[in-house]
Write a structure and sequence with these properties.
By secondary structure, this protein is α+β, with helices and mostly antiparallel strands. The protein is 49% helix and 12% strand. Among the domains are: 18-80, no CATH class; 271-316 and 439-519, no CATH class. It is globular, with a radius of gyration of 26 Å.
C-alpha cells in the first residue's frame, strides 16, 4: 500500500458580499467600506456607491481609507460580514476538527456514516511521508489494520456508525465551509498560539486560503487591516492545544473525574414564575393543535412561533452544565452546535491518559472480564453491539487495535513525528472530556431536540437521552414536559421515515398515512 500525502486544496466557490451597480461589480471590501461609511451619513449605501462611481474620486483610495479606519480598530462586524464559500479537498478528516466548531462559520461535511472508508483513502502528514521507511511502516500498519477491521465488520456484525469508532482521522476528508474573514483570522491566531501542538495541515490550509484571498484581491485589504488590529475575536473550540497548560477542563476533571454518563448540574436559575405561566399557556395551545392531524397541518407554524417567542424572551433564565467524556467522533458533532457554550480538553491529554490506563491490560487483551471492559470503556468508547456474546472476539480485536494505535502514536513521536501529525493514527473512539452549558433554547429547541431524534448518531443520542433524564430531575415538570425530539415541537415527524416517537407528543394516532399527509 502506498501512503497518500495530504495536499490541501481550497476551491473558492464564492466571495461575498458582492453587488452589481450600473454594470460594475462591487467587491466585498468595496461594498463593506461604503456600507460602513453609510453609518456616518444620512444616505443609503447604494446611492453613496453610485455617487462615488460617477465622481472623479479615486475609488480605491476611498475604500482603503474607510477600511483602514474601521478594521484596524478591531471592528469585528467588518470582517464577519465578508467571507468565502470554500470547497476543501486533498485534506484529511482533521479539517472537520479544525474548522467546523467556529462560531461564525457554517459547514456541510461528508459523513463516514454515508461515505465509504477504505484503504485507498488512508492519508499521511508530510512528516510521515518524508520519514524513513520504518517510521512510515509504523503509521501504515496501524492505519491499515484499523481500516481493514472497520471494512470487515461494518453493517455486518456491527452497525457502521459504531464500527467507525476504530477509524482514525488520517483518512481523506474535505467539505464545504463558509468562512468569514474573522473566523479565518481567529483560526490562524489560535494555531500560531498553540505552536507545535497544531497539526501542520492546519497551517497549510490557512496558507492556501490566504494565498487565494490575496490572489483574488477582492477582500485582501480588509483581511490585512483586520489582521493588524490589536484585538482578537471570539475563540472557537480547539482540540489541538498545549496539554501542559492549565485549563478549566483540568479543574473539572480534578473535581469530578472522567464521567462516562453525563454529570448534570444547575449553574444558575432565576425566578421562573412568569415562565411557568407562559409554558402552561403553551401546553394548552399544544393540546388544542395536536388534537387532530388536520389541526397540526394547518397550525403547526403557530405552535412553533409561540414556543420560539417564549424561548427568545426567557433564553437566559437558566443555565445547566453537563460534564461528560464522549468519543472524539461524537465531540465532532457536539462542536458544530455553535449556540452551545462548550469547552473540550486537549486531545493529547486524552491520548496520554488512555496510553497509561491501557498499559495494565497489555498481554491480557484476550482475557478481558466485565470489569476490564467497563474500565476500558471509560477512556475508549465500546459500542453496545460489541458486548453481545457472539461478538466477544470482535471486542477483543477492537480493543487490541486501539492499544496498538496508542503504541504507534508513541513510537511515531519518539521518532521525531510532531504530536499533531502522529495523532492522526488515533481511533475516533477515544474519549475526551467535554463541558457543555445549556440555556433554555438548547434544552427546548436547539441541541436536545436534534440529538434525541432517532436519526442522530447512536452514541450521541444515548448521551443526550441520559442528559435529559438528569435535567428532568433538576427542572420543574412544566418545563420538562416541553423537552423532546424535534418532532415534539410541531406535532409531526420531520424525517422521511418515522420512528414512532412522535406518538408520545400528540393526541391522535400517527400512522403511515398520517405521516404522508403531514410531512408532504
Amino acid at each position: 500500500m502506498v501512503l497518500k500525502s495530504i495536499n490541501p486544496k481550497v476551491d473558492i466557490l464564492g466571495y461575498g458580499p458582492v453587488a452589481f451597480i450600473d454594470g460594475k461589480e462591487i467587491t466585498p471590501e468595496e461594498l463593506i467600506a461604503f456600507s460602513s461609511m453609510m453609518t456616518y451619513k444620512d444616505a443609503g449605501a447604494i446611492d453613496m456607491i453610485k455617487d462615488v462611481l460617477s465622481s472623479d474620486k479615486n475609488i480605491k483610495e476611498v475604500v482603503l481609507k474607510s477600511l483602514k479606519g474601521s478594521a484596524k480598530r478591531g471592528h469585528a462586524s467588518m470582517s464577519t460580514s465578508a467571507g468565502i464559500w470554500a470547497l476543501f479537498n486533498g485534506t484529511s478528516k482533521y479539517v472537520d476538527s479544525l474548522f467546523t466548531g467556529a462560531i461564525f462559520s457554517s459547514s456541510l461535511m461528508p459523513s463516514s456514516r454515508r461515505i465509504p472508508v477504505n484503504l485507498e483513502n488512508i492519508v499521511a502528514p508530510d512528516s510521515i511521508i518524508n520519514a524513513d521507511e520504518e517510521t512510515k511502516k509504523i503509521y501504515e500498519e496501524a492505519s491499515k489494520n484499523n481500516i481493514s477491521f472497520y471494512m470487515e465488520i461494518e453493517n455486518k456484525e456491527i452497525p457502521r456508525e459504531e464500527a467507525a469508532k476504530i477509524t482514525q482521522y488520517g483518512i481523506a476528508g474535505g467539505g464545504f465551509i463558509f468562512l468569514p474573514l474573522e473566523t479565518i483570522l481567529s483560526a490562524k491566531n489560535d494555531f500560531i498560539a498553540q505552536g507545535k501542538w497544531t497539526p501542520k495541515e492546519a497551517n497549510d490550509i490557512i496558507k492556501v486560503i490566504e494565498d487565494k484571498i490575496r490572489d483574488e484581491d477582492k477582500m485582501n485589504n480588509l483581511y490585512q487591516f483586520r489582521q493588524e488590529a490589536a484585538r482578537y475575536t471570539y475563540p472557537h473550540v480547539n482540540i489541538f492545544t498545549n496539554p501542559r497548560n492549565n485549563s478549566h477542563i483540568k479543574d473539572l476533571q480534578k473535581k469530578n473525574g472522567f464521567p462516562v454518563k453525563p454529570l448534570v448540574k444547575i449553574k444558575y436559575i432565576e425566578d421562573l414564575t412568569n415562565l411557568r405561566e407562559e409554558l402552561d399557556n403553551l401546553s394548552k395551545l399544544k393540546e388544542e393543535i395536536t388534537s387532530s392531524p388536520e389541526n397540526v397541518k394547518q397550525r403547526w407554524k403557530e405552535l412553533l412561533r409561540e414556543k420560539n417567542r417564549i424561548i427568545s424572551t426567557y433564553k437566559n433564565v437558566l443555565s445547566i452544565s453537563s460534564l461528560q467524556n464522549p468519543s472524539w467522533r461524537v465531540w465532532g458533532e457536539i462542536k458544530r452546535h455553535r449556540t452551545l457554550q462548550q469547552e473540550v480538553e486537549s486531545v493529547y491529554n486524552a491520548i496520554d491518559r488512555s496510553y497509561e490506563r491501557m498499559s495494565k491490560f497489555k498481554g491480557n487483551l484476550d482475557k478481558l472480564n466485565d470489569q476490564d471492559i467497563k474500565e476500558i470503556d471509560s477512556f475508549f468508547m465500546i459500542p453496545k453491539s460489541f458486548l453481545k456474546g457472539e461478538n466477544k472476539n470482535l471486542l477483543e480485536k477492537y480493543v487490541k487495535l486501539f492499544s496498538e494505535s496508542l503504541d504507534a502514536y508513541k513510537r511515531l513521536v519518539s521518532r521525531g513525528i510532531p504530536e499533531g501529525d502522529a495523532a492522526s493514527v488515533i481511533p475516533r473512539g477515544i474519549r475526551l472530556t467535554v463541558d457543555k452549558r445549556f440555556d433554555l433554547y438548547n434544552i427546548l429547541e436547539g441541541y436536545i431536540p436534534l440529538r434525541t431524534c432517532n436519526t442522530a448518531e447512536s452514541e450521541m443520542r444515548e448521551n443526550t437521552e441520559n442528559e435529559v433524564k438528569e435535567i428532568n430531575k433538576l427542572l420543574p415538570k412544566y418545563i420538562t414536559k416541553h423537552i423532546g425530539p424535534k418532532c415534539a415541537s410541531v406535532g409531526f415527524c420531520l424525517e422521511p421515515k418515522t420512528c414512532g416517537k412522535i406518538q408520545d407528543y400528540i393526541n391522535f394516532e400517527y400512522d403511515k398515512d398520517t405521516h404522508s399527509l403531514l410531512s408532504s
